[in-house]
Amino acid sequence: MTVTEATTEPTERVPTGWTARFSLLWFGFWMAWLVPVQLVLPNQFAALDSAHKVRDFGIANGAAGVVALIALPVAGALCDRTRSRWGRRRVWMAAGVTVLALSLAALGPQRSWTGVLVCWMFASLGFSIASAGLFAAVADQVPAAQRGIISGAIFGPQALGLLVGLILLAVVITGTASGYLVLAAAVVLLSVPFVLRYRDSAPGGAPLPLSLGALTEAMWVSPRAYPDFAWAFGGRVAVNVGNALGTTYLLYFFTNGLHLKNPDTALLDVTAIYLVFTLITTYGGGVLSDASGRRRVFVALASALQGTAAVLLVIWPSFSTTMIAGGFLGAGYGAFLSVDQALVTQVLPDAQSRAKDLGIMNIGTNVPQALAPVAAALIIDQLGGYRVLFAFAGLFTFLGATMVYRIRSVR
């Protein structure tokens, strides 16, 4: 494709090969990131200290969230300022893949919850570093009319990566250490085609200042000056908090809440249903949004579908209801992921600081997923159990649906 100045909006559509390699990379990333959260980490903490597994799991995810909170915008700001023979974005993609893979490999041999905690924090660092280059690449090279489809290439593989990883680590490879090694190898192998073939767009304008003061100042985006950016960020935070509250403790919900005999198998069944609906709406929502030129109505409807899933579990907490809720949640979250990502690329304040601004915006995705388990653990232990947990999940999700309509610059 023709190299486009980074300070202008791209107009040439990215080719099919670019999209396919990008999708393959994200398949590996989601497998490496989500399978530990859903299966391997809970089981590892249960094996290390069953009595405190909920607490330890919550603390580890909370610490990872703090890492992402700092690393996402800082890595983005540094990515915007990087000048090297390998470009700007690709350097950070490769560095993030390396750190994530090494962290996963180091998790298996850990024999204390603190060791797992530290390794998972480094995994969060790697994911955040890679995200700085990957999300900026979309804003740099993908035209606005194609961003719904490309956002589908990011988030469409999410449920598939989770399902394939769960099957591998719950059925084929049952050892914790070997499971982590498989995930580490997968994220490297699946990332290589895109990272090696990617060519950066030429940076435009004067180089951004690289100093502690400049970086600190860059971390703030004024809600008064850029209200649409603020509303998009708030809606993303609310929806992702709701989603994380409703999904992170599903394995423990099946084990301790519903007392199922085979909770791992139940998780696979629900994930399979979630996968089907997520795939349909992630790609379908992105295509329809691009074709219609509308973003807000899709994001709001997707958020409401997720809230409906939570309401069902509050009223009828059973495995059958969870299967139905999994369909609603997959349909809602799939459409939200693809269309919301396209929406936020259209409310960025400054074309020269795309990676930093997207890093701030992606705090709204990564940090809730990491910090929500801390809140969920308190809700389960102190406020009434899983029904109350799902009620909070629905509340946050419906809140996110209302916030998106405060955005004015995007239809």
Structure in a nutshell:
With 411 residues, the protein is mainly α. The chain has helices at residues 16-48, 53-81, 89-107, 113-141, 147-172, 176-197, 212-218, 227-247, 250-257, 263-292, 296-315, 319-344, 354-382, 386-403.
Number of strands: 0
Number of helices: 14
CATH topology: Growth Hormone, Chain: A
Largest beta-sheet details: none
Q: What is the CATH-assigned architecture? A: Up-down Bundle
Structural summary, described in words:
This protein is an all-alpha fold and 411 residues long. The chain has a single domain (16-202, 214-406), classed as Up-down Bundle (Growth Hormone, Chain: A), CATH 1.20.1250.20. The protein has 14 helices and no strands. The protein has helices at 16-48, 53-81, 89-107, 113-141, 147-172, 176-197, 212-218, 227-247, 250-257, 263-292, 296-315, 319-344, 354-382, 386-403. Helix 8 (227-247) packs parallel to helix 13.
